[in-house]
Amino acid sequence: MFYLQYSTKTYALSNDNKYIYYMNIAYQIYIPSSIFCFKYLSKLEIRNTSFCYIDKEFQFEINNYSSSIIHLAIYDTIINYLSENIVKLNRLKTLELSNINLMSLPNSIRNLSSLNFLSLPYNKLETLPSTIKNLKYLSNINLKRNEKLSSIESLNGLKSLEILDARHCSIQHLLLHLSDLTNLYMTNNYRTDLYGIKTLGYDNNSKKYFYFDYYFIQLIPLNIFYVKNLYWLNLNYNRLDNLPMTIFNINTLSYLYIPHNNFCHGELKSIAYHFKHTNPNLKLFYLNKFQSLKPCST
Q1: Are residues 140 and 254 in the same domain?
Q2: CA atoms of 234 and 213, how far apart (whole Å)
Q3: 132 Cβ partners below 8 Å, 6+ apart?
Q4: Which range of residues forms the domain containing residue 131?
Q5: pLDDT 10s digits, 180-206
């Protein structure tokens, strides 16, 4: 990914040959037409600047940049839709579209064959095109705060995906068969169980960081034991009243968060006791200083 310090100013950077390779357009009325003259431009960021198209569809002289642009980022600008022509940016590696009122992605996104980072936070997406799984280098996706997004099942089987941030959406189904996944952020969604979790990250030996806090989870499946190198598991604010016995045998688990669930006092004592003997190095977070514990039913 490409990072530069956030700036509210419009400016450009040039290389040793005096060619403009980076441009940040910020807080302008419209995008200046002069940007289409920079044929060596490889990184373009647009912030809070309008496109002068009535239909609010993102389109510009893409042909000018089809062989040069590798990073495109647009923030805080109303667009709604991406033009199908965006696929002409066939060298594009990072695409960031944040808070642009985006409602859908075109099916032709499958042709962005070099894309490895896709960031679409704070938009109005409801689903993703099935063609997105054709992006064989796509390793990092940010879908945070698409509050109408209820299904991302089109990502199932995307072997290259390592990091997925889908916090604060309305997702109801756990993804399946993401063999390289290491970091999964699913805070504040609507899943009630974690069936299929064993199909996540099974081809990647790296530590797994899974966040399922502020969910509606009532049940953890026994096969969580088969998640390879599960290191961090956040189950804070769910509806759990027990844990599967297999979780006590996950010796790679180093951080477990389970406050604000439905565990009774006796069950929590039992959980802490089991982990003390099976995984003594685990950092277990199970109480909150403001939480009152209910007694176990007899």
Answers
A1: no
A2: 6
A3: 105, 109, 110, 138, 154, 155, 158
A4: 1-149
A5: 999 999 999 999 999 999 999 999 999
